[in-house]
Write a structure and sequence with these properties.
The structure is a single chain. This protein is mainly β and 213 residues long. Helix content is 6%, strand content 62%. The chain is built from one helix and twelve strands, in the order αββββββββββββ.
Length: 213
């Protein structure tokens, strides 16, 4: 899904800019594009995994909270002086519990945001609508690999529809390069689960601009 979204943007970039051109000063004139990569962290909380055996006897309830790590990026088309449309996709991993359990959320979607300029600063806010998947491996002891201990591990994999509001700030290092700071909050709209970890994520990265003034 994320791959298809990025291919969609690449097709748009391949179209001659004259297809978008309007008179200078037009409210929604095409102004170019920007894109880049953003590592992120934050704080996740609220998730828990209940592990049961084959007889549905509860073995453990693992709390899922802590500092995640992740990476991803965004591509945005600029229209007029304030609007941007594009796509973004990320993967975020949280390690939790005593035995290095881990949950990974991969997601992406179509974004829209509104920005304005204050000197070299550019505050912005918007949202992304798309989808993703969760992979959660829970370990209840070290190296649960043999037959005698296989019930000490649990693996879950499910998909969901996502909405992610965000806000942030860009700082212009040059006309071609901006430093970006962003915070977001990913929401599971279609498939709520106890082990869907929630919390703010904080991004810091570089965005490369090819835009008109």
């Amino acid at each position: 899904m994320i791959r298809r979204l990025f291919l969609f943007i690449v097709v748009i970039f391949s179209i001659n800019n004259s297809c978008f051109a309007r008179e200078n000063g037009a409210r929604f004139a095409y102004k170019g594009f920007s894109g880049g990569m953003m590592p992120h962290s934050g704080y996740f909380f609220g998730g828990k995994t209940a592990v049961c055996d084959a007889q549905e006897t509860l073995l453990s309830v693992e709390e899922m909270r802590g500092l995640p790590l992740g990476l991803g990026g965004a591509i945005r088309l600029h229209f007029g002086d304030h609007w941007r449309l594009g796509t973004e996709g990320y993967s975020t991993t949280l390690r939790y519990g005593k035995y290095n359990s881990n949950v990974t959320i991969g997601w992406g979607g179509l974004l829209a945001d509104y920005h304005w300029k204050i000197g070299k600063f550019k505050p912005f806010g918007g949202g992304t609508l798309g989808g993703g998947s969760v992979k959660n491996l829970t370990l209840l002891q070290d190296n649960p690999l043999d037959y005698a201990t296989e019930q000490a591990a649990s693996y879950r994999n499910y998909s969901f529809m996502a909405f992610c509001p965000f806000a942030g700030m860009e700082y212009s290092l040059s006309d071609k390069m901006h430093l970006i700071f962003k915070i977001d909050y990913l929401m599971n709209l279609s498939n709520p689960q106890d082990d869907f970890v929630k919390g703010p994520r904080i991004y810091l990265g570089l965005m490369f601009h090819h835009t008109k003034h």
